[in-house]
Amino acid sequence: MFGHKKERTESNSDLKLLLESMDKVIEGKFDPIDTSAFTDGAVGEKLNNVLDAFRKSNNNFVMRANEAMQSIGDNSYVKNMLDQVESQTVTINEMQESSGNLENSINDITNSIEHIRSSSHNVLQATNDSAEGMRVSAKVVKDSTEEINNINLQIQDFQEKITKISEIIDMVKKVASQSNLLALNASIEAARAGEAGKGFAVVADQVRELSNSTSASADDVVKYVGELQTSIAELAASMDATTKKLEDGNKRVEDSIANINAMESQMNDVTDEVDSIYHAIDKQSAYTKDLSKVIGQITDSYSVLSQDCHDTGEHIYKIGRYIDTLRSDMFRGFSDVTLLDRMKIFSIDHFILTWRVYNNAVGFESLKLTQLNNATGPNACKFGKWAQSVTDTKITSSSQFKDMVQCHNDIHNNASESWKAKDAGNTELAIEYFNKALEAYYRFDESVKRMMDFMRANGEKDMTQIVVFRK
Fold first, then answer.
1. Mind listing the domains of the chain with CATH numbers?
2. How far apart are CA 300 and CA 292, in angstroms?
3. Which residues are in the Methyl-accepting transducer domain (predicted)?
């Protein structure tokens, strides 16, 4: 009877330990239990087997989450999208500025064309007025030429009359000469007649005096007529020269009128062209204003698009953080991944870290410097802790291991420099260090793959086979 009681007591003790262990599992504690506390060690061992099987069954979820984070954590497409939007936004802004400059230029050209148009119309009017004035001048010159020609004709007629007067004076001089000769003969005859011829002699003397006086007067008239002929000849020559100059001037005026008429025709063509250009520029100005308005609308749309892309990137980042947190919790809490699995997790960890550096640089999240590096160096992450804990000299002395450590340190150092640049407000420099960190990650990923090959070559074979869900 006492033996049965002892068995029930031991059974109750094992049941109590089993229930306590299950409570720990419910609390999320999947550490192996101490089987020595059980009266029946097989019970504790079986529970450990269950926990081990559960952890291993979660390996698939952890590694699937790891694979998922390789895609979700890759923000390169978000970066490219934002870079494209930023580049196009810059282009659109430049287009907007250019369209504004173009609109101002078109307005300036329109004002200039309007001024040219007004000037061309004024020039055309002035040309028309000049042409009319030249035509009036030509008529005046022509009329003056005709009047001078009439004066020339009158002068010629006057010269002919003076010539006739000269002929008459010649006749008078001849008559006077003959009268003087007759008077002389009469005086001689009167002298011969003596006393009887005295009265006739007096008459003869008077006739001779009258003849001499007439001859002297005729000489004066001849003198004056000669002077008059000289003056008339000079006047005629001057009138001829004036007539010739007027004819030359008239020809030049006619040539000028022809040139002005040609210029008037050309100015009409120029005015028509200027008017056409003015109307075309006026239409272009309206089109340019519409273009500036449309580009302004595009600029506003791109501002909205840029914000939408930024919000999309931030949303994708948050989804990635949720999944990464789940992956990390499962890895730490209730999984039992293999060493080869750990290598892949180390790679994805730093892939995610690198892109978190980018997220920090563009403002998707705010990291702390201690999340990238601490006082002891880049050894606080899972890889850093593992690398420091490795005691197998075959691994630590390998070139693959040394390459991994160096690339790992480069990632963290460049990530820290990116954080410092962002903290100082220099986003461009922060992106530059991010690119260096990303390049270091790619080298790290290659060194991890070489390390996995090295481990396989040295007998490490276990690796979780990820279950592929059917499509």
1. 121-299 (1.10.287.950)
2. 12
3. 78-299
